Amino acid sequence: MPLAILLAIVGTGTIVSLLPSTAWYIRIFDFLLELLLYTSFLAAMAALLAGKWRNALVGGFAFLAVIHLVRIWPYVVVAPNEIELGRPEGSECFSLLTLNVLQSNRDYARTLDLIRARDPDLILLTETDRKWLDALMPVLQNYPQRMAEPLDNTYGMIFATRLPVQSAAMPMDRVADAPTLYATVTIPDAGDFELIGLHPRPPKPGQDVERRDKMIAEAGMATPDGLEEALTLGDFNDVPWSQTTQAFRAHGGYGDPRAGRGTFPTFPSSAGKLGWPLDHIFVKGNLHIRSFAVLDDVGSDHRPLAADVCMIPESSD
């Protein structure tokens, strides 16, 4: 009977996760798909030892496991790689770092040490208030191009780069009270690309995902300067297999370095490989990812995400 009850619970969760709704208590199931897959698979194995209901239990759990496997399939390590990693011949590259610092985290030194050690060419930090901005100035002052929107509501943002910036803006979504970064950046000897930095609000009690989904969807539409080369990064507060992020990637034509390599979870930082991949780096056009990695915990509830991004000059095509 315990397995039958579990089958009913997992089955109900599966059905709920398929509902087309922006309600937080529906969309929160996007975060549970991986757990539901593992639960279904292990329960199917345990059901082999059951009595007269064995076949029904094994079949039920196996069916549910297949549903969840199909939905997260691109992020299973045996799935095909969506994009190849490496530096294309003749390309020019730069390094980047993105991190949700956790506004209430006041251990500034670990983030300062991380930036000094990695020395990235481009940085996007979220959940940054005025205290964070002031504390990070010893390293941020080394970046000639900077833009910041310090906020006390956990949706502040800092952008800094040593690459030339043609234009940059952080328009505020007044409903979500959260900015989005739009910038056109130049890779010397390669060309321009558009950069979009995101940190929409997550699903939680009293907070549905309509605004989150809209912010993500708008980032997947035509970029301000209409360039084919674009890089989107940040804390999406969403998993890559959700309907929202899949639609963003499909409409924008973005590739995901995670696909075919695993989930690479970034939240919560204490969970290691058992958490959720909420922080993302997506590229499209003539941008390529040479390498990417989820870095060690630096005191936030998110782990940093780093990558080397390359671009082939048009003359090299």
UniProtKB/TrEMBL annotation:
GO molecular function, one term: catalytic activity
TM stretches of this protein: 28-49, 56-76
SUPFAM superfamilies: DNase I-like
Domain of life: Bacteria
A Pfam family the protein falls into: Exo_endo_phos
Keyword annotations: Membrane, Transmembrane, Transmembrane helix
Domain Endonuclease/exonuclease/phosphatase: residue ranges: 97-302
Protein name, UniProt field: Endonuclease/exonuclease/phosphatase domain-containing protein
Organism listed in the record: Parerythrobacter jejuensis
